[in-house]
Amino acid sequence: MPGGNLTGFSNIATELNSKRFELLSELVPQAKIIALLVNPNQPNNERVIREVQEAARAKGVQLPILRAGTEGEIDAAFATLVELHAGALFLGGDPFFFSRREQFLALASRHAIPASYTWREFAATGGLISYGVKVTDSFRQAGVYAGRILRGEKPADLPVQQPTTFELVVNLNTAKALSLTVPPSILARADEVIE
What we know:
Blueprint: H1 17-27, E1 34-38, H2 45-59, E2 65-67, H3 71-84, E3 88-91, H4 95-99, H5 101-110, E4 115-117, H6 120-124, E5 129-133, H7 135-150, E6 166-171, H8 172-177, H9 184-189, E7 192-194
Parallel strand pairs: 1-2, 1-3, 3-4, 4-5, 6-7
Antiparallel strand pairs: 5-6
């Protein structure tokens, strides 16, 4: 940061929301209602909601907004999804949600809800699809910066970095369990296909 003493990394997760929504609606084209689940304790919620609402409008899809900031609220959100007859779930990127990954995957499976996630760990362990920053690359770069700073470079001289590598992961086993056919256009773009 010029004139300051900070540097760092942006994960630009919110900037990827419209692309994530497009992928989910392409994967589940029959879904006329796709719910967005956000953590009410997350400060950038309004921006996430706006971006996903724009993407939903462009696709002609209804987008109910659900909020969950506790384990109990996550359970309640899935009950609401069923009541709304939502055809899919768009899970906002949130560290609390990541920490509750097993709960989300179990509920999505139990209720047969196709869901899109930010992190590959969701798709790798049973989620349908994920699209986001390749987190290991960001951590590696942070380590490089830490080394440079420890060797005497000033943080202010190191530019704030944004990721350039994103990964699309599709779990074909989950798609099959949901009776979904993954379009060839998504398979062709996938960085990893889990079978």
